[in-house]
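The protein record minuted underneath.
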Amino acid sequence: MCTVLLLVSACAAGPLASDPGTPAATLQETSAPDSKPATATGGVMTSENVEHVANVPKTAPFDGVDDINTDLAFQGDYAYVGNFGGFSIYDISNPEKPQVVSQVACPGQQNDVTIYDNLLILSIDEPRGGPECDAGDDERAWEGLRIFDVSDKKSPRYVGAVATECGSHTHTMIPAEDSLYVYVSSPGPEPDSETCPAPHELIQVVEVPLSSPGSARIVSKPDIFPERQNSDLASGCHDITAYPEKKLAAAACFGDGVLLDISDPVNPKVLQQLTDRENFQIWHSATFNNDGTKVVFSDELGGGGQATCDRNTPNTKGANAVYDLVDGQLQRRGYFKIPREQQQDENCVAHNGSLIPVPGKDVMVQAWYQGGVSIWDFTDSANPKEIGFFERGPFRRGGGAIAGSWSAYYYNGYIYSSDIMEGLDVLKIDDPLTNPAEKVKMDDFNVQTQKSY
């Protein structure tokens, strides 16, 4: 289990909690969509306003038990899907009939993916024999970022790599005039590791020159938390979301949430540190609202491998915390957790999601592993509520405990879910609240680099 859980919680840096914890004194109640019965078809259950319009199962070479689907990115009519075995490119010009364009075998946890112009970047959080795709894992002396040229979608081309300390669990792009800055988030240190020695710098900033991406290099290692010791799991950050237009970033750094000034992307400055040891175990990811006046931080209680969406786990744990940004400081207002109880063998916790671009409203779609996909409204920060959902029954094939939706993002009228075992799902929501989002057209979408709409 630990090998698999490295993808979400850096188990190599410390043990995962086996006890989700005791209930908090005050719980923020949530409710399911009002009077909207679920429909079930072929093991799939949805709210009345959500339709499951497509599924593309995983195929060779990414159909083995260890070939776990991970993150998503979008550009034009294409979706890019990471997998422990490499990455796939899908033609989504007809979202209800996605077609595989190419699959690149390039093993490495996590293979989280971003796209910018013709450059695709992968995060590798596992020591390998070298940066090339065929390097193998015999020597286990390299981890970091891999860079590909995907101008030919049918034949992507490896162009270079950057070794980073403790690898790259996730990464965040900040575009500049002639370069692309990439924030690398990684846990560590790891004892006796060639690639993850102590002490571990909290984040690393890589510059990728657009004219010569093969010459990408680390340009700074800002230690944004020299005195932070609040995580039982690891040092370092799990995920950073940048909002370049606002010159802000929100970092989820295992034991803390951090608000950053990224006016100078090479030298980010800490504006505020948040700690919630009562309710949060792993500060996993962050999402700004469109106005940049709120941040949603998620807690990945148990690292993604436990069943925390049950009656024994408080709904302030393994959940989302909604913060309002007031006079430059974040103030917590409320919590959200899916209201549907999952079975004891279903790993379920808050995971990757994105805004649904509804003007004047704060609405988000989010993956919850075997809890499925949830659409929820946090316009009222203190009283967030679910408005729609999609989920399958427990994953049974092969006895796999780690399954479900890894990432669920809205892009140009549809919700795309990268399912760990089931492949690529496409959903459609038809609701008066979210329908205005269909008028918003995006040229590309990388969830960790937010753009206003």
In short: The chain has a mean pLDDT of 89. The helical segments are 2-9.
